[in-house]
Amino acid sequence: MPDSIDAILSRYSRKLDELIPILQDVQREFGYIGPESVKKISRYLRISENQIYGVSSFYAQFRFTAPGRNSIKVCLGTACHVRGGATLLEMLERGLEITCGQTTPDGRFDLERVACLGCCALSPVVQINKDIYSRMTVNKLMELLKAYE
Could you tell me if 31 and 86 lie in one domain? Predict the structure, then answer.
């Protein structure tokens, strides 16, 4: 783990109420909260690793696996769900051989489901990195993924 975890910790007191801001900074720096970070935070705050996982796993913002080079978000809001969002998610899970919250073994993609991307009139919608793709179909999505390989 790079020294920047120590730099992050040095900005905080050793109080338990600093845990969430520390976790946010670690995730911002590394893209996720890895086991080495948890160990260092545990020692710094003098709390168990289980306490850290207990707090951080409560919040959807924290992830414990390294993100892929390309992040895929499938909208499952009402409009997207009705128009096939769940089918798109199932196809991605099968095709990439991962489930939501995971990263492909080659590190190319990570996969998430989101409640709404705010593009209901264009549903179903998939976001890859910062790009939004509307009126998505399974065939269009399979072709689109090739561009990100």
Answer: no
In contact, 27 and 21? CB cutoff 8 Å: no
With b meaning 16 or more CB within 10 Å and e meaning fewer, what string describes 19-52? beebbbbbbeebebbbeebbebbbebbebeeeeb
Judge whether 42 lies within some domain.
Answer: yes
Q: Write the CATH number for 94.
A: 3.40.30.10
Answer whether 75's CB lies under 8 Å from 86's CB: no
Element (H, E) at 114: strand 109-114
User: The domain containing residue 16 runs over which residues?
Assistant: 4-56
Averaged in consecutive runs of 10 residues, what is the pLDDT profile of the chain (149 residues)? 80 94 95 95 96 91 91 96 96 95 94 93 96 96 91
